[in-house]
UniProtKB/TrEMBL annotation:
SUPFAM superfamilies cross-referenced by the UniProt entry: ATPase domain of HSP90 chaperone/DNA topoisomerase II/histidine kinase, CheY-like, Homodimeric domain of signal transducing histidine kinase
Domain Histidine kinase stretches: 194-408
Stated role: Photoreceptor which exists in two forms that are reversibly interconvertible by light: the R form that absorbs maximally in the red region of the spectrum and the FR form that absorbs maximally in the far-red region.
Catalytic activities: ATP + protein L-histidine = ADP + protein N-phospho-L-histidine
Pfam family, one: Response_reg
UniProt keywords, alphabetically: Kinase, Phosphoprotein, Transferase, Two-component regulatory system
Name this polypeptide is given: histidine kinase
Amino acid sequence: PPIPTPCRSWGPRVPHERLPKGFPGIKQLPWQMAEAESDLLPPASCLLPSKAHVLLVDDNADMRDYLTRILSEHVEVEAVADGAAALAAANERVPDLVLSDVMMPGLDGFELLKALRADARTKEVPIILLSARAGEESVIEGLQAGADDYLIKPFSGTELVTRVLAHLQMAHLRSEALHQERTISRRKDEILSTVSHELNTPLVAILGWTRLLRSSTPNPAMLMKALETIERNATLQAKLVQDLLDISRIAAGKITLNQEPVELQGVIEGAIATVYQAQATKDICLECRLDPLPITVQGDPDRLQQILLNLLTKAVKFTPQEGRVKVRLDVNENQAQIVVSDNGVGISAEFLPHVFDTFRQAENSKGGLGLGLAIARHFVELHGGTIIAESSGVGQGAIFTVNLPLISVNL
């Protein structure tokens, strides 16, 4: 029968003499027009990273065969003859896109669309309807029914393939965006939980000792222990808050350095003095080998000491009782080189690339927010330097090497 007009083919019309043999004197059918325009289709590698799965639904065998042929270069096509078969196929394997005729016996295109939208697994799958019903009202009816697109026969093969690929690409981008949103939301919840726990832990100790002191008359030894515990936990909480503020300022680009010539020997000695109590408690041997000649860099002395303090705190924390931590300061060409190493728990090969990431902690972590190394890296980079982490694996210790631009070496 004649194909209704008008049609929405945006591709060039095909001269009658170019129609495939076997159709003399018959008006151009949709698949004939598409075949004649096959040289206009985009390459198979266009848009999609890999072949998507398209479910094609049409009761016309010739149309199914031809649409399968023009789409197969770009996507994986599963063709079925009716709506019921389409539902069964979608239940077996959720497609990336559904391309369906409207007028079909049994379950027609609109009923198929309604059923797919009612299923949680397929409700977001792009659906393109094909129909011989011309006119704006038909298009509006299809879109209002929930279709993502609506093509009127006869259509251009170029247009069909382009629309299919465009909807697949948009669906892929939506899926990626949703995945990223869920990942960010889950990560935010994890961070809030960790921050709450880490801030609450020292508070518990402080409140516990405060209540004990109020409810009893402590002897001098107990009083001293209570004050030391309260001070230690208050200092820990203050550092946690400071780390959070630093990360916030770093993210906002609001960190400023008060730069001046700084001798690194003094910076390292100050950091060592700060971690002395924790080191002594675990009976850790801390070896320090510093170049006897002054090694000077241009930098912020407070931030430089924070870098060293974070590295040393991490080394002492993850080194076992009676372990060993080494600090070395040398000159390497035009760089001041600081190396902090330990024989502690080490870093797995899987986690090593993420060791400087914000809020990232290894599975063998012993608490904390996972901010110290991230802050150290940012401060090193603000000073124009580099920091690298090395480890032979779990149980093999770790080595952190900081290189900073040298001002001068007094020889």
